Protein backbone atom coordinates (compact mmCIF):
# COMPACT_ATOMS: atom_id res chain seq x y z
CA UNK A 1 0.00 0.00 0.00
CA UNK A 2 0.96 3.61 -0.48
CA UNK A 3 1.15 5.87 2.56
CA UNK A 4 -2.20 7.47 1.72
CA UNK A 5 -3.90 4.09 1.40
CA UNK A 6 -2.35 2.90 4.66
CA UNK A 7 -3.61 5.95 6.52
CA UNK A 8 -7.14 5.42 5.20
CA UNK A 9 -7.07 1.71 6.01
CA UNK A 10 -5.81 2.34 9.54
CA UNK A 11 -8.48 4.97 10.16
CA UNK A 12 -11.18 2.62 8.84
CA UNK A 13 -10.08 -0.25 11.10
CA UNK A 14 -10.13 1.99 14.18
CA UNK A 15 -13.51 3.49 13.32
CA UNK A 16 -14.99 -0.01 13.01
CA UNK A 17 -13.86 -0.71 16.60
CA UNK A 18 -15.28 2.57 17.92
CA UNK A 19 -11.92 4.22 18.61
CA UNK A 20 -12.18 7.98 19.10
CA UNK A 21 -9.82 10.21 17.10
CA UNK A 22 -9.30 7.32 14.69
CA UNK A 23 -7.55 9.36 11.99
CA UNK A 24 -5.18 11.01 14.43
CA UNK A 25 -4.24 7.71 16.05
CA UNK A 26 -3.79 5.97 12.70
CA UNK A 27 -1.53 8.77 11.48
CA UNK A 28 0.59 8.76 14.64
CA UNK A 29 1.03 5.01 14.51
CA UNK A 30 2.09 5.09 10.86
CA UNK A 31 4.51 7.93 11.59
CA UNK A 32 5.96 5.85 14.43
CA UNK A 33 6.41 2.80 12.20
CA UNK A 34 8.09 4.88 9.49
CA UNK A 35 10.15 6.90 12.02
CA UNK A 36 8.85 10.15 10.59
CA UNK A 37 6.99 13.20 11.83
CA UNK A 38 3.27 13.12 11.10
CA UNK A 39 3.49 16.02 8.63
CA UNK A 40 5.97 14.06 6.49
CA UNK A 41 3.26 11.48 5.78
CA UNK A 42 1.40 14.06 3.71
CA UNK A 43 4.54 15.19 1.90
CA UNK A 44 5.34 11.57 0.95
CA UNK A 45 1.73 10.67 0.24
CA UNK A 46 2.51 8.42 -2.77
CA UNK A 47 5.41 6.44 -1.31
CA UNK A 48 4.90 2.69 -1.12
CA UNK A 49 5.37 0.90 2.18
CA UNK A 50 7.73 -2.05 2.27
CA UNK A 51 6.33 -5.43 3.27
CA UNK A 52 7.97 -5.09 6.69
CA UNK A 53 6.58 -1.57 7.21
CA UNK A 54 3.11 -2.69 6.19
CA UNK A 55 3.23 -5.69 8.55
CA UNK A 56 4.43 -3.51 11.44
CA UNK A 57 1.69 -0.97 10.80
CA UNK A 58 -1.02 -3.64 10.72
CA UNK A 59 0.26 -4.99 14.03
CA UNK A 60 0.05 -1.65 15.86
CA UNK A 61 -3.33 -0.80 14.32
CA UNK A 62 -4.75 -4.09 15.58
CA UNK A 63 -3.33 -3.38 19.05
CA UNK A 64 -5.03 0.02 19.10
CA UNK A 65 -8.24 -1.50 17.73
CA UNK A 66 -8.18 -3.82 20.77
CA UNK A 67 -8.33 -0.68 22.97
CA UNK A 68 -4.67 -0.74 24.00
CA UNK A 69 -3.86 2.89 24.88
CA UNK A 70 -1.98 4.79 22.20
CA UNK A 71 0.59 5.87 24.81
CA UNK A 72 1.55 2.28 25.57
CA UNK A 73 2.03 1.50 21.90
CA UNK A 74 4.14 4.63 21.36
CA UNK A 75 5.86 4.17 24.77
CA UNK A 76 5.59 7.86 25.60
CA UNK A 77 3.35 10.56 27.03
CA UNK A 78 3.90 14.30 27.43
CA UNK A 79 3.36 15.89 30.83
CA UNK A 80 4.25 19.44 31.87
CA UNK A 81 6.16 19.89 28.62
CA UNK A 82 8.34 16.84 29.33
CA UNK A 83 8.24 13.49 27.54
CA UNK A 84 7.85 10.45 29.78
CA UNK A 85 8.37 6.80 28.95
CA UNK A 86 5.29 4.76 29.87
CA UNK A 87 4.37 1.10 29.67
CA UNK A 88 1.89 -1.31 31.26
CA UNK A 89 3.59 -1.02 34.67
CA UNK A 90 2.42 2.56 35.23
CA UNK A 91 -0.61 4.79 35.01
CA UNK A 92 -0.52 7.06 31.96
CA UNK A 93 -0.05 10.68 33.16
CA UNK A 94 -3.10 12.84 32.45
CA UNK A 95 -3.25 16.54 31.63
CA UNK A 96 -5.63 17.05 34.58
CA UNK A 97 -2.77 16.21 36.94
CA UNK A 98 -0.77 19.19 35.65
CA UNK A 99 -3.06 21.40 37.77
CA UNK A 100 -1.45 19.92 40.89
CA UNK A 101 2.06 20.84 39.72
CA UNK A 102 0.98 24.30 38.57
CA UNK A 103 -0.58 25.06 41.96
CA UNK A 104 2.49 23.73 43.77
CA UNK A 105 4.75 25.98 41.70
CA UNK A 106 2.52 28.97 42.43
CA UNK A 107 2.70 28.33 46.18
CA UNK A 108 6.47 27.89 46.17
CA UNK A 109 6.96 31.05 44.10
CA UNK A 110 4.77 33.02 46.51
CA UNK A 111 6.72 31.77 49.53
CA UNK A 112 10.04 32.63 47.86
CA UNK A 113 8.81 36.17 47.16
CA UNK A 114 7.99 36.47 50.87
CA UNK A 115 11.60 35.72 51.75
CA UNK A 116 11.17 32.06 52.58
CA UNK A 117 13.38 30.76 49.76
CA UNK A 118 15.33 27.68 50.90
CA UNK A 119 15.87 24.02 50.15
CA UNK A 120 12.49 22.31 50.45
CA UNK A 121 11.70 18.64 50.98
CA UNK A 122 8.95 17.16 48.83
CA UNK A 123 7.50 13.64 48.90
CA UNK A 124 5.40 12.28 46.03
CA UNK A 125 3.29 9.31 47.14
CA UNK A 126 2.10 6.75 44.56
CA UNK A 127 4.59 8.18 42.07
CA UNK A 128 3.97 5.71 39.22
CA UNK A 129 5.87 6.94 36.15
CA UNK A 130 7.41 9.67 38.31
CA UNK A 131 5.65 12.42 36.37
CA UNK A 132 4.83 14.57 39.42
CA UNK A 133 8.13 14.10 41.25
CA UNK A 134 10.24 14.61 38.13
CA UNK A 135 8.29 17.71 37.05
CA UNK A 136 8.85 19.26 40.48
CA UNK A 137 12.56 18.47 40.40
CA UNK A 138 12.83 19.81 36.85
CA UNK A 139 11.05 23.11 37.43
CA UNK A 140 12.27 23.71 40.98
CA UNK A 141 15.96 22.76 41.41
CA UNK A 142 15.84 23.88 45.06
CA UNK A 143 13.49 20.99 45.85
CA UNK A 144 14.80 17.76 47.35
CA UNK A 145 12.32 15.25 45.95
CA UNK A 146 11.46 11.69 46.97
CA UNK A 147 9.01 9.48 45.07
CA UNK A 148 7.42 6.40 46.63
CA UNK A 149 5.44 3.51 45.19
CA UNK A 150 4.35 0.04 46.22
CA UNK A 151 5.24 -1.31 42.76
CA UNK A 152 8.88 -2.09 42.01
CA UNK A 153 8.00 -2.12 38.32
CA UNK A 154 6.62 1.41 38.50
CA UNK A 155 9.77 2.60 40.27
CA UNK A 156 11.90 1.10 37.49
CA UNK A 157 9.97 3.25 35.00
CA UNK A 158 10.29 6.32 37.24
CA UNK A 159 14.06 5.84 37.57
CA UNK A 160 14.38 5.49 33.82
CA UNK A 161 12.46 8.73 33.29
CA UNK A 162 14.49 10.65 35.85
CA UNK A 163 17.78 9.49 34.34
CA UNK A 164 16.70 10.32 30.80
CA UNK A 165 15.45 13.77 31.80
CA UNK A 166 18.50 14.42 33.96
CA UNK A 167 16.84 15.30 37.26
CA UNK A 168 17.77 14.06 40.76
CA UNK A 169 14.94 12.22 42.50
CA UNK A 170 15.27 9.61 45.24
CA UNK A 171 12.99 6.60 44.82
CA UNK A 172 11.68 4.49 47.68
CA UNK A 173 9.60 1.33 47.51
CA UNK A 174 6.85 0.80 50.05
CA UNK A 175 3.18 1.14 50.91
CA UNK A 176 1.87 4.70 50.53
CA UNK A 177 3.44 6.93 53.22
CA UNK A 178 5.43 4.19 54.96
CA UNK A 179 8.73 4.96 53.14
CA UNK A 180 8.77 8.60 54.30
CA UNK A 181 7.89 8.10 57.97
CA UNK A 182 10.35 9.36 60.56
CA UNK A 183 11.15 12.48 58.52
CA UNK A 184 9.62 15.95 58.20
CA UNK A 185 8.39 17.20 54.86
CA UNK A 186 7.57 20.68 53.59
CA UNK A 187 5.21 19.23 51.00
CA UNK A 188 3.52 15.91 50.44
CA UNK A 189 1.91 15.57 47.04
CA UNK A 190 -0.05 12.65 45.68
CA UNK A 191 -2.30 11.44 42.91
CA UNK A 192 -3.52 8.34 44.76
CA UNK A 193 -5.92 5.67 43.54
CA UNK A 194 -9.33 7.30 43.95
CA UNK A 195 -11.79 5.42 41.74
CA UNK A 196 -14.57 3.51 43.50
CA UNK A 197 -15.17 -0.14 42.69
CA UNK A 198 -18.52 0.72 41.08
CA UNK A 199 -17.11 3.52 38.90
CA UNK A 200 -14.15 1.40 37.84
CA UNK A 201 -16.45 -1.13 36.23
CA UNK A 202 -17.91 1.64 34.06
CA UNK A 203 -14.59 3.06 32.82
CA UNK A 204 -13.58 3.30 29.16
CA UNK A 205 -12.08 0.02 27.87
CA UNK A 206 -8.59 1.54 27.56
CA UNK A 207 -8.49 1.92 31.35
CA UNK A 208 -8.39 -1.86 31.84
CA UNK A 209 -4.99 -2.02 30.12
CA UNK A 210 -3.54 0.20 32.89
CA UNK A 211 -2.63 -1.22 36.33
CA UNK A 212 -5.81 -1.46 38.38
CA UNK A 213 -3.81 -0.76 41.56
CA UNK A 214 -3.34 2.79 40.27
CA UNK A 215 -7.11 3.37 40.10
CA UNK A 216 -8.90 1.46 42.82
CA UNK A 217 -9.28 3.40 46.05
CA UNK A 218 -11.62 1.07 47.93
CA UNK A 219 -15.41 0.72 47.83
CA UNK A 220 -15.99 4.50 47.73
CA UNK A 221 -12.60 5.53 46.31
CA UNK A 222 -11.57 7.36 49.48
CA UNK A 223 -9.38 4.81 51.30
CA UNK A 224 -6.07 6.54 50.60
CA UNK A 225 -7.35 9.96 51.71
CA UNK A 226 -8.49 8.43 55.00
CA UNK A 227 -5.02 6.98 55.54
CA UNK A 228 -3.31 10.24 54.68
CA UNK A 229 -5.59 12.27 56.96
CA UNK A 230 -4.63 9.92 59.81
CA UNK A 231 -0.90 9.75 59.06
CA UNK A 232 0.04 13.14 57.62
CA UNK A 233 0.44 15.39 60.67
CA UNK A 234 3.61 13.75 62.12
CA UNK A 235 5.18 13.85 58.65
CA UNK A 236 4.87 17.59 58.03
CA UNK A 237 6.96 20.53 59.18
CA UNK A 238 4.99 23.23 61.10
CA UNK A 239 4.36 25.04 57.79
CA UNK A 240 4.01 21.83 55.79
CA UNK A 241 1.30 21.36 53.19
CA UNK A 242 -0.45 18.57 51.33
CA UNK A 243 -1.53 18.75 47.69
CA UNK A 244 -3.79 15.94 46.50
CA UNK A 245 -5.52 15.16 43.25
CA UNK A 246 -9.13 14.04 43.71
CA UNK A 247 -12.06 12.77 41.67
CA UNK A 248 -14.46 15.46 40.46
CA UNK A 249 -17.12 14.60 43.08
CA UNK A 250 -14.86 13.94 46.10
CA UNK A 251 -13.94 17.44 47.31
CA UNK A 252 -16.50 17.73 50.10
CA UNK A 253 -15.77 14.28 51.53
CA UNK A 254 -11.97 14.68 51.42
CA UNK A 255 -12.04 18.22 52.84
CA UNK A 256 -14.22 17.00 55.71
CA UNK A 257 -11.72 14.25 56.55
CA UNK A 258 -8.83 16.68 56.79
CA UNK A 259 -10.75 19.41 58.61
CA UNK A 260 -11.67 16.86 61.28
CA UNK A 261 -7.91 16.34 61.77
CA UNK A 262 -7.27 20.06 62.18
CA UNK A 263 -6.27 20.99 58.63
CA UNK A 264 -7.42 24.00 56.65
CA UNK A 265 -8.38 23.07 53.09
CA UNK A 266 -8.74 24.78 49.74
CA UNK A 267 -10.08 23.30 46.48
CA UNK A 268 -8.82 24.11 42.98
CA UNK A 269 -10.65 23.25 39.74
CA UNK A 270 -9.21 21.81 36.53
CA UNK A 271 -9.55 23.49 33.14
CA UNK A 272 -13.05 22.04 32.75
CA UNK A 273 -14.13 23.68 36.02
CA UNK A 274 -14.36 20.41 37.97
CA UNK A 275 -12.86 20.06 41.45
CA UNK A 276 -9.44 18.49 40.93
CA UNK A 277 -6.86 19.43 43.62
CA UNK A 278 -7.07 19.95 47.38
CA UNK A 279 -4.53 21.93 49.38
CA UNK A 280 -4.46 21.02 53.08
CA UNK A 281 -2.32 22.83 55.64
UniProtKB/TrEMBL annotation:
PROSITE patterns: N6_MTASE. It catalyses: L-glutaminyl-[peptide chain release factor] + S-adenosyl-L-methionine = N(5)-methyl-L-glutaminyl-[peptide chain release factor] + S-adenosyl-L-homocysteine + H(+). Residues 7-74 form the Release factor glutamine methyltransferase N-terminal domain. InterPro entries: DNA_methylase_N6_adenine_CS, HemK-like, N5-glutamine_MTase, PrmC_N, RF_methyltr_PrmC, SAM-dependent_MTases_sf, Small_mtfrase_dom. CDD domains: AdoMet_MTases (cd02440). Its EC number is 2.1.1.297. GO terms for molecular function: nucleic acid binding; peptide chain release factor N(5)-glutamine methyltransferase activity. One of its GO terms (biological process) is methylation. The keyword S-adenosyl-L-methionine applies. S-adenosyl-L-methionine binds at residues 149, 176, 191. Belongs to the protein N5-glutamine methyltransferase family. PrmC subfamily. Methylates the class 1 translation termination release factors RF1/PrfA and RF2/PrfB on the glutamine residue of the universally conserved GGQ motif. NCBIfam families: hemK_fam, RF_mod_PrmC. PANTHER family: HEMK METHYLTRANSFERASE (PTHR18895), MTRF1L RELEASE FACTOR GLUTAMINE METHYLTRANSFERASE (PTHR18895:SF74). This is Release factor glutamine methyltransferase. It comes from Desulfosporosinus youngiae DSM 17734. The gene is prmC.
Amino acid sequence: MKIRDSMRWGESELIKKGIENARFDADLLLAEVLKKRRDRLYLEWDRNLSEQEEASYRKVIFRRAANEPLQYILKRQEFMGLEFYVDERVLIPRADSEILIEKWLEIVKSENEQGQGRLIKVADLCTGSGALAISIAHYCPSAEVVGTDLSSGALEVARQNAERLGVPVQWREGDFADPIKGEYWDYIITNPPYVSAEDYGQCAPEIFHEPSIAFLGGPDGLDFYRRLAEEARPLLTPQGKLLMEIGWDQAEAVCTMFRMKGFETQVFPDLAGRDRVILAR
